[in-house]
Design brief:
single chain, 263 residues, alpha/beta, six-stranded mixed β-sheet, four-stranded antiparallel β-sheet, 11 helices, globular, binds adenosine-5'-diphosphate, binds magnesium ion, ATP-binding, nucleotide-binding, ATP binding, Amino acid ABC transporter ATP-binding protein
């Protein structure tokens, strides 16, 4: 039942004390350009174990680029990004292994169209984590059950609704036993009636102790699940606060202006 909890075990006894205290993700003085465009401007961000951080901000402010940098889908110009105390290697086999520590769920679900739901979830563990087929399938079924899709395991992605496909995408990421999960606007491509079924799965994941970085404009989710809201604008982190403080008492005009448009 408690599969994600088992994956992310936050306090595993006395010998884990040190590991528990160190932040899980550290972004340190990170800069990135796309040509002339300074897209990430000296970003500093710390995410503790079991913490849920929501990143919000106007379109084009660098939220996706930051997420993509954290699992090295985008190279950074300077600064450091540490996951569980280790800098992600630049390339090679090591990178694939480290990247598997950082689960990522995108706006578009990107499931493999010609593989069943079950195969979508077992593929990564079998190929990258070198898990046996039987074990991978057992774990996959537990995860599919957790996101409420177990009965659809033999179907193909096109036979599922958008909300169901996104829940499969979450299960697929969890199957790699990531240390942290990144969500980049996971509900913004969904029909409104499917948004909550995905947010509910994410909320439960958060409750079970998963460390999460979530780009979303879903304020309800932020208030319910996040410990910290980070407001980005123009490639910078402009404000960082608790959801309550941020939504009721934003400090900067930029944030107030943004909130007035989305609330
Ligand atoms: P957000 O997710 O906050 O909307 P992005 O990180 O997607 O912002 O984009 C930040 C800025 O970087 C935007 O101005 C965008 O046009 C630009 N950008 C993003 N990806 C690329 C790329 N691969 N090449 C050039 N410019 C890019
Ligand atoms: Mg984006």
């Amino acid at each position: 039942k408690d599969v994600a909890g088992e994956v992310t075990k936050v306090d595993g006894g006395p010998q884990d004390d040190n590991a528990g205290a160190a932040p899980l993700v550290v972004v340190e003085n990170v800069n990135k350009h796309f040509g002339e465009l300074h897209v990430l401007k000296n970003i500093n961000l710390t995410v503790n174990r079991g913490e849920v951080v929501v990143i919000i901000g106007p379109s084009g402010s660098g939220k996706s680029t930051l997420c993509r940098s954290i699992n090295r889908l985008e190279p950074i110009d300077d600064g450091r990004i540490l996951v569980d105390g280790e800098e992600l290697p630049k390339e090679g086999k090591e990178l694939a292994r480290h990247r598997a520590d950082v689960g990522m769920v995108f706006q578009s679900f990107n499931l493999f169209a010609h593989k069943t739901i079950l195969e979508n979830v077992t593929l990564g563990p079998i190929k990258v984590r070198k898990v046996g087929k039987q074990e991978a399938e057992k774990h996959a079924m537990e995860l599919l059950d957790r996101v409420g899709i177990a009965s659809q395991a033999q179907k193909y992605p096109a036979q599922l609704s958008g909300g169901q496909q996104q829940r499969v995408a979450i299960a697929r990421s969890l199957a790699m036993k990531p240390k942290v999960m990144l969500f980049d606007e996971p509900t913004s491509a969904l029909d409104p009636e499917m948004v909550n079924e995905v947010l509910d799965v994410m909320t439960e994941l958060a409750r079970d102790g998963m460390t999460m970085i979530v780009v979303t404009h879903e304020m309800g989710f932020a208030r319910r699940a996040a410990q910290k809201v980070v407001f980005m604008a123009d490639g910078q982190i402009v404000e960082e606060n608790t959801p309550d403080e941020f939504f009721t008492n934003a400090r900067t005009d930029r944030a107030k202006d943004f909130l007035s448009k989305i609330l």
